[in-house]
Design goal:
This protein folds into 2 domains: about 170 residues, Rossmann fold (3-Layer(aba) Sandwich), CATH 3.40.50.10170; about 140 residues, Hypothetical Protein Tm841, Chain: A,domain 3. The chain is of the alpha/beta class and about 300 residues long. A 6-stranded mixed sheet has the order 9-8-7-12-10-11, sandwiched between helices. It has 11 helices and 12 strands.
Length: about 300
């Protein structure tokens, strides 16, 4: 079996236990800036707490042109080259996040050097470094990464043979998510981070205090509703339960992430209902706190649910 290192961006929303179960590595990318700046989001609790303190900031967040850094080469030199036969770096949707555009050119630069380093260390075999766009974000990104990790572990899929089944699985994911940043006049959302809405529609939602809910499937996104902040979880979960009443789960896990206190989600009646529906269909419900950088972009209270049916 070819042993792969699976690396992801911090915005891959999964419970900590799943990261540990599949030995997933987070490769942080500094891609947001303010006047003061923030540490690169690495999904650790301390760094995430710092990011969450910025959720109510009225300051405009801007996307950085990702600066050249040495994290990828350092990881390769420090451990990956010597402990695995290849690295599969799965990035978030390239339309929403600059990760793919940042890591892919770096991978192309360092790839020719990798075999020479391994040969010098008396290691045989070609070392493969691949950067792949998942086409997903938030909870859907996490669900896809978990399935890729499972296929590698259980089916002994090699780094190149994982691509086609990964794309096929991605096309089957249904993803509902909210963007509270649109409903807060003091927050200026980063336009390229999530689906575009006409300026007049954003202004109307600002005035009414309503939050847009989107559905994404097979590369297509559409707004399906706009609801008051207190109703977001209830609305999204009702849509998920309706979908599951028509077509049962075909993947064992439903992945949920939330940009806020996890106790609020765990105690929510709609989440309890969802847990029952998922359990009745033989599945598992995963809950995790949304990554700090995603929470800043999408807004406090952003809610994401991904499943396959």
């Amino acid at each position: 079996m070819q042993y792969l290192t699976l690396a992801v961006d911090a915005s891959c929303d999964l419970p900590k236990a799943v990261f540990q179960q599949f030995d997933l590595t987070t490769l942080p990318l500094e891609w947001l800036t303010t006047a003061t700046g923030l540490l690169p989001d690495d999904r650790t609790s301390d760094t995430t707490d710092v990011w969450y303190q910025q959720l109510d900031s009225a300051e405009r967040w801007t996307l950085l042109n990702p600066i050249t850094d040495t994290r990828l080469s350092q990881q390769l030199d420090d451990s990956w080259l010597l402990t695995s036969d290849g690295v599969l770096l799965i990035t978030p949707n390239r339309v929403r996040h600059p990760g793919y555009g940042h890591w892919s050119p770096q991978a192309a630069i360092v790839q020719p050097q990798l075999d020479r380093v391994r040969h010098a260390a008396h290691l045989s075999g070609h070392f493969r470094l691949r950067v792949v766009d998942s086409g997903q974000s938030l909870a859907a990104y996490g669900l896809l990464v978990q399935e890729v990790a499972r296929m590698h572990r259980d089916l002994s899929q090699s780094i190149d043979k994982l691509r086609l089944p990964m794309r096929a699985f991605s096309a089957r994911i249904t993803h509902f998510f909210s963007v509270p940043a649109f409903a807060r006049p003091t927050v200026k959302p980063v336009p390229s981070a999530f689906p575009a809405l006409p300026w007049w529609q954003r202004r109307l939602m600002h005035h009414r205090g309503r939050i847009p809910v989107f559905q994404a499937r097979n590369g297509q996104e559409q707004q399906v509703n706009s609801v008051l902040e207190a109703d977001v979880i209830t609305d999204v979960v009702a849509r998920v339960c309706l979908a599951l009443s028509h077509n049962r789960l075909t993947h064992s896990s439903v992945n949920v992430s939330f940009a806020g206190p996890m106790n609020l989600v765990k105690r929510h009646p709609a989440i309890r209902r969802l847990h029952q529906v998922v359990s009745d269909q033989g599945g598992h419900l995963w809950l995790s706190r949304m990554a700090g950088s995603s929470a800043v972009l999408f807004g406090a209270g952003a809610f994401s649910v991904a499943f396959v049916n």
